Predict the 3D structure of the following.
Amino acid sequence: MIINTERVKMVLMNKAISGYALWQATGVPQSGISRLRSGKKRFEDLTVETLEKIQRWIDAGNYTFSYDYSELLDELTSDIEEGLTGEYLYVVRGDYNEIMEKRMIIDYYYSPDEIEEGDLAEKMLTADVVEEMQKDSSIF
């Protein structure tokens, strides 16, 4: 099992999920979750067993991670409606995002001629770019 500590930390620190609910779902003691959230316990001091329990819960699909593409997606949707895009776009991705476990789209170009020096761009179907952004922005 691979433990993504950034994801585990995000789940444990998310106060929208009660400590009681996490305890019921994972077996991680509610008191430990409370101490972690209040700063009385450091994340680095958690046992591997605790990390594994939370990771298993995440891997079972009980938590959805999302990325805020709202501005870029609105811009792209507007460009599509105005007829500025073709069948393909050239997307630029940022650094690896530990939470999303991939490199996120940070910009796009309409044609290869527009790609700025130093940018690495990936050719993608415009529909696939929209679909990826919508999927990654979704909160279930």
